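Folded chain entry
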Amino acid sequence: MRFIKTNKYMAWSEKLKLSKQLLRTLSSEGLNQPTALQSKTLSRIIGGQDVVVAGHEGSGKTTTYVLAVLSRLGHQLEGVPMVLVLVPAAEQVITTIDHFNRFNKNRGLRIVGLHAEASIESQMDALADGADIVVATPDRARAVYLKLGLNLNKINLLIIDDADKIVKQGLQLPVTELANSITKCQHLVFTEVIHDRLNKLIEPFMKQPAIIEVNEISAPVLETYPQLLYHVPDFGTKLNLLNLFMQDEEVFTKTVIFVNTRQTAEKLYKTLQNRLNTTVAILKPWFYEHSGFNSITDFKDSDVRALIVVNQEEATPGDLHPIPFIIHFELPEHNAVLVERITGHDIAPYDETLAITFATDLELSAVKKIELTIGQQIPLADLPDELVIKPVKEKSAAKTKKTEEDPTQGGAFHQKKAANSKTYNYSSGQKAKMNKKKKH
């Protein structure tokens, strides 16, 4: 009988070109095989290709680039930064350096962190003493660079981690300036989601990168109401879409609309009343001129078609049953709140409630976390042909903020007759099923 000797590093070494030292470290850390994301990306990264990697939290993104960096640097170090890692927050600078130290056995490797929780002078002194890897927040890295404390001349690998969060924080400018200040290097971008704002950030310095998305969901599948996700560019288009839906009195007979603030609730209330002349109310109104109810049960028993609820107000799944439509105009701060609303009770086979979520680019990462919790992807719906999409205006931050926060100004939404506004990309069977909903 012939015995075949197995290699405990085989799962890694068959596909990935890692050093024996790294393989031993991986084994000692209990990482016996690569994740799906690592299997798809590491060989490309080590091969020198520009890559954009999208994967959920816990998919191994940080370990991926730490292994790639340690494989590249080896033992030939000059004390001049060769790798720049940009992360969104000071806490992440610290945890990323810890991650490097966890896998690094080359005690001569010098890593310097740059962030706002330490003095800029001490960080510049640390760089002057020598650094091979710099891990930094974009704004602090730019500030040190402008003070001539950060040498980018020999950077051959630029890594942007949690790029979607960097975009959400509005740190695109320092990222772009740093990237454009590096003569030539490999670029790696790691993110939870890919969207237009992210693409706009990386377009100036990444040319034809490989796009790798890993959407593995290992959580148990929870029973939920049927769901749809509408991905829209901004607040104004969200409002247009809601108006378009509510014009159809035959389908949207009873709808609960969730928002995050009283200010948004007031905007929706005024817009739905003024433009559609429809019956709309607010849960527990704070001004006497607003129509409202003290409970969702009272809303069910009324002739009012739309109820606006601020997310901080109580709304249990039992309260929402059997309202035909639940619309999350804005995602709540805590994802568990939304998950409980769509899963928190026994859903009968004859339940016809449809849960609809509106999300902009900046909310897609929260949607991803919700999908991980419920163990399934939310189907993406096509935007209706008659929806007027507000153009994105590239103006100053103040003007952009005003435009997004006050969508009632201007003529972005053109009212249509209800008879012409009944196409939401639902199948004819689904529309027929909706029309059978009991009117309240």
Notes: The chain has 18 helices and 14 strands.
